[in-house]
């Protein structure tokens, strides 16, 4: 895709939104009251608002490779704090996906000076996987990753202080079917 396509596509987007509501951008500029804080992978195929069909303003989003929660990550800490303490979101969503390059790189032992510092977090997550299953499939690891990040969010000091009553829900986006698999270890009956 050429860079010019970006401008063309954006113009179409602007025109469409104004046709639906002439005040759309005026309202957008007035503030945000998102219901969801989303942690997702950086993967270009898993844009949270796009795949869920949610409007702008509903999903306060933090992204990193393989959607990891680690207490060492100051950027995530700030996002989580802002989402809970300032915006007052109703739900936290961990959005993983199938065919995740970050999970694959960590599980296959990829090494690179620019990646090692981050992949160590992903490896630590995969190390938590039940060792009795000797050859987990990539999909099993991806689901495990989502479950582990739910636990990590709940143990995060910011969630411990500010997250009372805010459900943490896992979603696994299946790239090859478009389906969202719900992973809700607390059985919130949502
Ligand atoms: Zn990914």
Automatic annotation (TrEMBL):
EC number, UniProt record: 4.2.1.1
Keyword entries, A-Z: Lyase, Metal-binding, Zinc
Ligand binding (Zn(2+)): 41, 43, 97, 100
Co-factor: note: Binds 1 zinc ion per subunit.
Catalytic activity entry: hydrogencarbonate + H(+) = CO2 + H2O
Pfam families per record: Pro_CA
Cofactor(s), names only, from the UniProt record: Zn(2+)
Similarity section: Belongs to the beta-class carbonic anhydrase family.
Name the UniProt record assigns to this protein: carbonic anhydrase
Protein's organism: Salipaludibacillus aurantiacus
């Amino acid at each position: 895709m050429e860079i010019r396509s970006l401008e063309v596509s954006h113009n179409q987007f602007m025109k469409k939104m104004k046709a639906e509501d002439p005040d759309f951008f005026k309202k957008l500029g007035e503030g945000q009251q998102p219901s969801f804080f989303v942690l997702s992978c950086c993967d270009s195929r898993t844009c949270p608002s796009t795949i869920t069909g949610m409007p702008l303003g509903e999903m306060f989003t933090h992204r990193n490779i393989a959607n990891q929660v680690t207490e060492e990550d100051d950027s995530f800490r700030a996002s989580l704090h802002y989402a809970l303490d300032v915006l007052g979101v109703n739900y936290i969503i961990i959005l993983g996906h199938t065919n995740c390059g970050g999970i694959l790189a960590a599980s296959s032992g990829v090494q690179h000076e620019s990646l090692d510092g981050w992949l160590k977090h992903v490896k630590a997550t995969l190390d938590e996987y039940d060792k009795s299953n000797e050859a987990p499939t990539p999909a099993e690891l991806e689901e495990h990753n989502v479950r582990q990040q739910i636990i990590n969010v709940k143990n995060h000091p910011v969630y411990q202080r500010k997250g009372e009553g805010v459900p943490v829900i896992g979603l696994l986006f299946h790239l090859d079917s478009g389906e969202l698999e719900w992973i809700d270890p607390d059985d919130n009956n949502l």
